[in-house]
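Handout, page 2. Input:
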Amino acid sequence: MNFKILVADDEYYARKALVMMLEKSELPISVNGVIEFLQENEADIIITDIRMPNTDGLELAKYVQEHMPKCSVVIETGYEDFQYARNALRYHVKEYLTKPINESELIKCIKDIL
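Output:
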């Protein structure tokens, strides 16, 4: 079985780095990098930046909780703000990772969710 992971980050290089780490992990996953994917498909895991220009990770986590309850959300951020983390818990976010993302921490997080 292949699990679908969606990566949403407005920073091009951060997004590319996450996708590269996941693709070389040899986990049974396929990685998609566009938010529009959600409109017509579902994902098993969404990794999202907490703050982006058009939307934010908390809004996305709330949407996922309401419309895709089987999907897990992982938030990644450059901000170590406790209020963000507390709000993330409200939407059942599985993990809260701080940037720069540590590859082994990311892979462990995905393995724990799978």
